[in-house]
Amino acid sequence: MDCKHAHSLMHDYLDNELAPDQILLLKEHFAICPTCKEHYDQLERTELMLFGTKTQHLEPISGFVTANIMASLPKKAKQRVWLQWVKNHPAITVAAMFFMVMFISALSFWNQDRDLMVKGPDLDKLIIEGDKVIVPKGLSVAGDLTVQNGQAEVYGEVNGNLTVIDGSMNLASTAHISGQVTKIDEAMSWLWYRITHLFSEVSYR
Amino acid sequence: METRLALLARKGDQRAFAEIVELYKDKIFHLAYRMLNNRHEAEDVVQDTFLRVYKNLDRYDENQKFSTWIYRIGTNLCIDRLRKRKPTYSLDAEMNDQEGVDGYSILPSDDRTPESELLLSETQQLIRQAIESLPAKYKTVMVLRYLQDLSLQEISDVLDMPVTTIKTRVHRGREYLRKKLERKL
Ligand SMILES: [Zn+2]
Ligand SMILES: [Zn+2]
Fold this sequence. Notes:
The complex is a heterodimer of chains A (205) and B (185).
Chain A: H1 3-14, H2 20-32, H3 34-54, H4 66-72, H5 80-88, H6 90-112, E1 117-119, E2 127-129, E3 132-135, E4 140-141, E5 145-148, E6 151-154, E7 157-158, E8 162-165, E9 168-171, E10 176-177, E11 181-184, H7 187-204
Parallel strand pairs in A: 3-6, 4-7, 5-8, 6-9, 7-10, 8-11
Antiparallel strand pairs in A: 1-5, 2-3
Helix pairs in contact in A: 1-2, 1-3, 2-3, 6-7
Chain B: H1 2-10, H2 14-36, H3 39-55, H4 66-85, H5 114-119, H6 122-132, H7 136-147, H8 152-159, H9 163-180
Bound molecules: zinc ion (2 copies).
């Protein structure tokens, strides 16, 4: 092998692209040619120095962070952010939509119904005077009683929950209510009532 | 994985794009800094690179490695800047093995502070200057090969040139740097 051939092989060797038998030939040449050996050593050291600079620490100007780069991008995709979020969180989105629909319908419902409404069993045995709903003494209502836009006066028994919506309640000392007594007079709590009841209804079905 | 991020980003996923930025901003900064030897310009290149990537996500071919694509964009931006910098500078002028001209004087000075300069060893400074003095086409392959650790094949993909051309350039670049660094070797 002459020096010219050796020279081209040493670059291939540094590129890791030399076959083992050729590496052997190259090394044989190095053994008899100190000039090529020295040349190769210099190239190898050059390469090591180059690779060495890779680890050199380079500090970009402070604040050169991902957030800043992101902020510098055009805003055209901005409108799609919320849509993207919807795509990424389908369950939450459905829930949010559901609550929104609930909220709107519940609010309108709450605003619409200004008339007295009574819901429960044994309605015919209750005494209704104007907006006053009376559970007389000795009467036992066999279930939940709901009064909306009125005053509930209980002297007897309610074997269930008593709920008064947007009204007042008056429980006599003789009154006995086996379930929960709830008074709702704000749109938000009405909403909450609707939602919790809807869920319990759904879950019991 | 980057390909997946790119596809997500294409659909408008900002978080995926932020992850791409996080993965590549330092790499592109190093590449640009070594190519241009100027912090501000390097940062501009990083910004421009991500801007181009962002705008061209639709054109990204997912069969291609994402790293190749982003390196290509970054490298081209650097080369453009080098070209604008020295329109009459002959790329091969210094490859004639006649080192009479000191290449450093015609290059724009970096905005390095004297303090940061002190942190670099004399050898490291010498290497930096040697790389800086390389003609653009050799500088590009040397930076990609040694500072970004790309293989010859990868460089060939990035620059869209035959591997044999890349090999020749690496060989010549190596010889050039060896000569520049001779007194340190
Ligand atoms: Zn020889
Ligand atoms: Zn040589």
